[in-house]
Amino acid sequence: GDALLEVARGQWSIENGNHYVRDRSYDEDRCQVRDANSAHILATLRSLARFLAKQGAHRPRGTHQQTTPSLNRFCDSHRNQTIRWLMSPRGFR
After folding, report:
1. pLDDT for the residue 43
2. 3-state secondary structure the chain
3. What is the pLDDT of residue 91?
4. What gap in Å lies between CA 61 and CA 90, rounded to an integer?
5. Looking at residue 16, what DSSP letter applies?
6. DSSP 32
7. So what's the pLDDT on residue 15?
8. CB atoms < 10 A from the CB of 21, how many?
9. What is the DSSP letter of 29?
C-alpha cells in the first residue's frame, strides 16, 4: 500500500517537474519526430535547456526569469553569443 503510493508519487513528481514543463515550453507532445534516436536527442536537448535555465546560464536578473521560456527568449535574441557558448570548452560561464 504505502510503497505503491510512494512509487506513484515519484512518477508524478517526474511528470510534473520535467515532462510537463517540456511540453508547455516546446509543445513536445505534438512533436512529429518518429525516429526513436531523433526523438531521444530532442528530449535530451530540451531537458538540457531546462537545466541551464534553472542554473541561470543566461544570467537572469531575478529568479522569475530563471525559466525555460526565459532562456529560450534570451538564446533567440542573442544567437551569436549562444553559439559561442555551445562551442566553448568552458561552456556558458
Report:
1. 86
2. CHHHHHHHHHHHHHHHHHHHHHHHHHCHHHCCCCCHHHHHHHHHHHHHHHHHHHHCCCCCCCHHHCCHHHHHHHHHHCHHHHHHHHHCCCCCC
3. 64
4. 22
5. I
6. -
7. 64
8. 19
9. G
Quote the cell numbers at residue 50: 531546462
The dihedral region occupied by 27, where left means phi > 0, alpha psi between -120 and 50, and beta the remainder, is left
Instruction: Check residue 13 and give its pLDDT.
Output: 64
Decide if 60 contacts 66 (C-beta within 8 A).
yes
Tell me, what's the pLDDT at 48?
Answer: 83
| Per-run averaged pLDDT (10 residues), the chain, 93 residues | 77 68 82 91 85 77 78 86 80 60
Query: How close are the terminal C-alpha atoms of the chain, in Å?
Result: 47
Query: Up-side HSE of residue 64: CA atoms within 13 Å toward CB?
Result: 0
